[in-house]
Amino acid sequence: MRRVAVVALAALVATSALTGCGRIDAGTGAAPATSASTPAATDPVDLGDVLADLDAAGDALDAADGDAGAGDDAARTDDAP
Amino acid sequence: MKNSFRAIIATTLTSAALVAATALPASALTVSASTIDGEPVTLTAIQKAGAEATGKRIDALTTALTRVERNESLTEADRTTITATLQADLDAMHTLASQIAADTTRVDALTHYHQIFTDYRVYAVALPQALYAAGADRLTGTALPRLQKAYDALVAKIGDSPTDEQQRLLDAMAADIADATSGADGLAAASLAVTPADWNADHDVMRDIRTRLHDAIRSARDAASAGRDLAETLR
Fold it and tell me: Residues B177-222: pLDDT tens digits?
């Protein structure tokens, strides 16, 4: 009886250890599909976003140039005497 | 003999007058009955010039108000200030136009005519200051934040081991953003603080603001260019 209990406990410890290591699925006992691979490092910076920011800045600068040019045109208009 | 002498003198004087007339520029020979040095002198001329001057300003102010209304980059505080100034000037131009048209003396009409310019300086101050402030707000509100965001992302993407070319471009972009930020800082407020009285005392009062705005735009464009070159190195 004691021997059965020891064997059952050993089996339980072994199962827990393997599950903790992610090497087997605790529910099915099967190895998870991704268990053997480390998650790929994702690039947090999207170059498309960078280009979109540069485009937005460029558009704002075009508009600022338009404002400045219109201001220059007004300032050149004769406002004497 | 006496008649011959007179004839010689008359001929000489006529020739001298013709030579003088030929030598003078056409404008010097034109004497306008309604203006002296471009200033209208008769009541009718003043009223005509007043209607023309107020009409042009009314059109320009109306266009500017529409432009300000459509500008999504203006801060609400600047939009309020600009709109108030332009609207007040617009109202004043309508009032002066009516007053000049109704004036019955040359003195009254000329006083009102001069007020079009000296009291409002629509072209010299009101319109440029509104437009320069709008340009400055586009820099501080949109262009520079987007450039800074792009710069931060590029630094993160390039990481700790940039190539020499990437480091050069990063340094240039950072310096250009700093220059543009410094140039645009407080520019809208400085522009909107100028008054017609300031301009009457110093006709160059808008020059520094104009120069700062153009320089800041140029620096920001250089920063954007460096950013694009950096992005190209990462493709």
Answer: 999 999 999 999 999 999 999 999 999 999 999 999 999 999 999 9
Give the tokens for residue B91: 């109202």
Report pTM: 0.75
Residues of A in contact with B220 (CB under 8 A): 57, 61
Give the integer Cα–Cα distance in Å for B48 and B194: 30
Tell me: the pLDDT tens digits for A19-58?
A: 443 333 444 444 444 444 444 456 678 999 999 999 999 9
- Are the Cβ atoms of B138 and A58 closer than 8 angstroms? no
Q: Cα-flanking dihedrals φ and ψ of residue A6, to 5°?
A: -65, -45
Each residue's pLDDT tens digit, B37-67: 777 889 999 999 999 999 999 999 999 999 9
Contacts of A57 in chain B (CB under 8 A): 142-144, 146-147, 150, 220, 223-224
Which structure tokens are listed for B43?
């009541």
* Inter-chain touch A47–B157, beta carbons under 8 Å: yes
Contact status, residue B122 vs residue B60, Cβ threshold 8 Å: yes
Interchain CB distance below 8 Å, B143 and A61? yes
Pairing outcome for strands B39-40 and B35-36: antiparallel
Residue of A nearest to B63 (CA): A70
- Tally Cβ neighbours within 10 Å of residue A21: 9
Return the residue matching tokens 């079009």: B116
CB B130 within 8 A of CB B68: yes
Q: What share of chain A is helix, strand, coil (3-state, %, to 5)?
A: 60, 0, 40
